[in-house]
C-alpha cells in the first residue's frame, strides 16, 4: 500500500479521532525569550552546584547575575547591574524548576543549598569537556563565581 492508497482508505472508512478531552497544559510553557536564555542559565546553575561551595537558594539569582557581569565583556563596568535584575531572577527560578524536574539538581531543604545529581554532573562535564566557545565561557563564569565567593569570604573576615 502506498501513501495515496492509505489516505484514500482512511478517508473512505470515516475514521475519526476525538480530541475533546485534550487539555492544553500552559502552566509549564515558556516564552520565546526564555527559550534562548534558559539553557545558559541552567548550565551556570549546574556549574555552581558542582562547585565545592554550594550556593544557597535565596542567593542563586544574584550569584548568576554577578557571575555573568564579571565574566561577559559586555556587562563589565555596565550600569545595568545584572545581579539585581528581577527578570534574571525569575528566569533563574524557571531554570531551577527545569533542572529539578529533570533530576539534574536537588534542593536540600535542611541546608537550603543546591546539590548536583550524578546526571547533572555528567551534563556539565560534557559541556566543559569540549574545546569550544561554550566551554571557554563556562570556565570564565566558573572563575567569576569562585572570585565572588572568595570576595564575600574576605569581607566577612574583615567585619
TrEMBL record:
The protein's name in its UniProt record: Restriction system protein Mrr-like N-terminal domain-containing protein
Amino acid at each position: 500500500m502506498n501513501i495515496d492508497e492509505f489516505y484514500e482508505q482512511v478517508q473512505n472508512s470515516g475514521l475519526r479521532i476525538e480530541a475533546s478531552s485534550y487539555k492544553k497544559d500552559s502552566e509549564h510553557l515558556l516564552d520565546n525569550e526564555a527559550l534562548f536564555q534558559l539553557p545558559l542559565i541552567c548550565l551556570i546553575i549546574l556549574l555552581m552546584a558542582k562547585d565545592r561551595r554550594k550556593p544557597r537558594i535565596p542567593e542563586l539569582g544574584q550569584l548568576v547575575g554577578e557571575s555573568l557581569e564579571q565574566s561577559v565583556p559586555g556587562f563589565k563596568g555596565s550600569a545595568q547591574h545584572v545581579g539585581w535584575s528581577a527578570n534574571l531572577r525569575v528566569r533563574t527560578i524557571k531554570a531551577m524548576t527545569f533542572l529539578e524536574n529533570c533530576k539534574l539538581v536537588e534542593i536540600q531543604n535542611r541546608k537550603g543549598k543546591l546539590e548536583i545529581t550524578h546526571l547533572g554532573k555528567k551534563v556539565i562535564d560534557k559541556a566543559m569537556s569540549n574545546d569550544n566557545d561554550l566551554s571557554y565561557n563556562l570556565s570564565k563564569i566558573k572563575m567569576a563565581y569562585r572570585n565572588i565567593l572568595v570576595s564575600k569570604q574576605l569581607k566577612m573576615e574583615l567585619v
